[in-house]
Amino acid sequence: MYKFKEQRGHRVPEPPTALEHFYEHFKERLTDAIEDNQKLTAIFVGGAILIVSICLAFKAYRIRSEQQSTISTSSRRATNAQ
């Protein structure tokens, strides 16, 4: 019986999945943010601050690891020289 209903065009649509629901919610929030200039500016400034802080943290990690490898190499040389 279900097969015949589907063939006649009386198909009942399936409820939206969680992913579709999330996508629609995100799309609505994004369009609201785009229309509101103050919110859009705050989002971009916050994003820029986040990107810069991540880059600085990565650079500090690289510098610290280079310094530690230099210190450990020089301490090994000092121990071997004695």
Question: How would you describe this structure in keywords?
Answer:
82 residues, mainly alpha, 84% helix
Protein topology:
Layout: H1 2-7, H2 18-35, H3 37-81
Keywords: Membrane, Transmembrane, Transmembrane helix
Transmembrane segments: 40-61
In short:
The chain has 82 residues and is mainly alpha-helical. The protein has 3 helices and no strands. Helix content is 84%, strand content 0%.
Describe this structure in words.
With 82 residues, the chain is mainly α. The chain has one domain. It is 84% helix and 0% strand. It is elongated and about 90 Å long. The N and C termini lie far apart (93 Å).
Q: What structural class do helix, strand and pairing data support?
A: mainly alpha
Could you tell me the radius of gyration in angstroms? 29 Å
Strand portion: under 5%
How much helix is in the residues?
over 70%
State mean pLDDT (0 to 100 scale).
Answer: 82
H and E order: HHH
Shape from CA axes?
elongated
The number of domains: 1
Largest sheet descriptor = none
Query: What's the total number of strands?
Result: 0
Measured distance between first and last alpha carbons: 93 Å
Count of helical regions: 3
Which regions have little confidence, pLDDT < 50, spanning 5+ residues? none
Keywords: Membrane, Transmembrane, Transmembrane helix
